[in-house]
Every structure is written in C-alpha cells, then in structure tokens.
Amino acid sequence: MIRPGQTVGILGGGQLGRMLALAAARLGLRAHIYTPEPDSPAAEVAGACTVASYDDEAALAAFARSVDVVTFEFENVPGRAAETVAAVAKLRPNAVALATTQDRLTEKDFLAGLGLPTAPYRAVNSGAELEAALADLGRPAVLKTRRFGYDGKGQAMIRPGTGPAEALAAIGAAPAILEGFVPFEREISVVAARGVDGAFAAYDPCWNEHRDHILGLTRVPAGLAPETAAAAIAMACAVADALDYVGVLAVEMFLVRDGDGERLVVNEIAPRVHNSGHWTIEGARTSQFEQHLRAVCGWPLGATTRLGRVEMENLIGADVEGWADLLADGAAALHLYGKGEARPGRKMGHVTRVFPE
User: For the residues of 184-224, what is the DSSP string, one character each?
Assistant: First the structure.
C-alpha cells in the first residue's frame, strides 16, 4: 500500500494528469509527471516533472525509480515505454490492459471473447479486404484505424456513395477495422474502478452527446431502465476483471431501442480516467480522480454515490472565452486546464452543474 507522502508517477502531461495531480495533493500524495512537453498542463500543478521522450529508456527508468507507483493519463503510451517502467516500478493499470485497448481489433476480439455484444467488425489491411468486408457488413459502415484514433480522428464513414479507395485514403491507408453501423439512440458510458484486491465500484451510467466527434455534454442519470443500467455496470465489471485491471476505466456503449426494449452494444474501452467522468468532481461523493489514486495506491475504493442530477459541458476552443460569465453563474463549477491557445477542437476546460433530483 502506498502511503500519504509517497509519490505517484504519471505518464502524460495533459488535463487528465493535471486533475490527477490536484487530487493527489488533496490526499497528501506527491505527483511526478513524465511528458515530452516542456509546458504541459499537468506539470503546472505537480511537485516534479521529467521532460523527456517516450523512447528515452534511461529517462523512463530513472523516473520509475524516483516514484512509488506509476499510472498513465492517456492510452497511447508506447508499449515499450510501459514495459520499461513496469520493469522498475509498479505500473497500474498493467501493460496488458494498455496493449489490449491500444489496438481496436485486439480490443474487439477481447470483448467478443468475453461474450459481450459489439458491432460486427472485420480486419482491413488492403483495398481488397475492405471490399470483402463491405460485402459482409453492408453500408453504412465505419472504417477506423486500429491505433491512435481519438475524438473522431482516424475514422471515415462509408455511405452508399462512398468509394472504398476514398475511405482508405481518408485514414492514411493505415491498418484498420471496419465496423457495421449500429442504429443507436444514444451513447452512454460506465466509469468504474477496480482495486488491487479486486474490489469494484461503478458510478451511475452517463449519457454522452458529441459535437463534431468530440464529447460536448454529459448527463447523469442516463435515462436508462434500471435493468439496462445494471447490465451496463455488469459489462464494465466483466471487462475490468478479465484485464486484472487496477484503476479507473470507462466502457463506452451504444443504447439501442428495439420496439419497447433496450439493449447495449459495447463500443470502446478507455483504460484511464475519462472525460465523461468529469462530472464526479462535484457530482459524486468521490471523484474519478481520487478513485483512481485510491485504486492504484492500494487504498479502499470510495463511495460512488451521486449527489444530484448532473450536467457536465466541455469548453472546446473559443467556448472558453465565456469563462467570466460562467464564474458569475452561481450554479456552475468551472475548471480550466491552463492551456494557452484556444484552437478549434481543443478541450480548454469544462463546467459542471449539479441540480436537485
């Protein structure tokens, strides 16, 4: 068990690392950031920062020796970097969980192996394989790069008039996966945690609305039937157990309505604290950031009790210019990430509102 006063190493210097470092300080833990960026949002609030590339094995090993446990704030940490750290220090979540979720095909095979429902899918490594996959799955369908896709990047929708070559070019002809289109009503996610001892705790499922493929608004509760919400949490638990996961993860799902019934289709796993869990800072007894630290430090998991009806809105690009009005709104809790330039599509902060049920 990691004790207060010891150090949590965090691979990655973005806003998730920043919020982890802030939560660590409140718990009496020290945070040490490892990032290639010299002016990262996380480094601004952490006690220590190593600025080095992810292929600098000497720097990674020195970083790992200087901390008591290591975690990560984004899922594209190179596998070799994770292995280098894990050879020196405790890495939580483990390198297998990271590798499984870095490749969309590996992830889909993993989910299917658990018997969880997913969109139909095929591996695509060439134009001929894409033609064959389209013949199997039909149109519309979504072509996605197997690696490094996020916020809609590395994806191409294939509609009846879309040429396969055009879709492949749109994703840079990278190794890909074709997914059959799911006629979903809404997107939901389950943010949950698993401890070193296997204890599991989930927050209420949330309803996520996207703008231009970027999460815009999260609402909790998600408006699910009680049995659907319970099924969603059970799926997240199955994923966490199968990965021997330690920490917070998010399992993203589609809600599909068939007549009067509801069913869930698992879309993706995020092996980290998640944008759709930001509402927990003000809206739950224990924030997802504190919960992640509790888990990776071997502490008891905190209560996930929701404190009301909650809405969390991302501030994307120029949205952040409204910060003064948000500060004047007595119902709003404003979080800014300390990023300099408000570029289109860049997450600059978020605002949360908690209402009585």
Answer: -SEEEEEEEEE-TT--EEEPPPEEEEEETTEEEEEEES---
- Peptide bond before residue 221 is cis, with ω within 30 degrees of 0: yes
- Rounded to an integer, the average pLDDT of 319-336 is 97
Find, among 126, 156, 123, the residue nearest to 137 by Cα. Answer: 123
Q: Judge contact between 193 and 292, C-beta under 8 A.
A: yes
Q: What does the alpha-carbon distance between residue 257 and residue 122 come to, in Å, rounded to a whole number?
A: 24
Task: For residue range 205-230, list pLDDT tens digits in order.
Answer: 999 999 988 999 999 999 999 999 99
- 45 close to 13: Cβ distance less than 8 angstroms: no
Query: What is each CA distance from 72 to 34, 98, 195, 289, 325, in whole angstroms?
Result: 9, 9, 16, 12, 34
| Rounded distance between C-alpha atoms, residue 191 and residue 279, angstroms | 11
**Per-residue pLDDT, 213:** 87
pLDDT in tens, 272-317: 999 999 999 999 999 999 999 999 999 999 999 999 999 999 999 9
pLDDT exceeds cutoff 70 at 350 = yes
Dist. CA 281–CA 301, nearest whole Å: 15
CA distance linking residue 19 with residue 144, whole number of Å: 30
Residues 6+ apart with CB under 8 A from 259: none
State if pTM tops 0.90.
yes
Q: Indicate the DSSP class of residue 284.
A: B
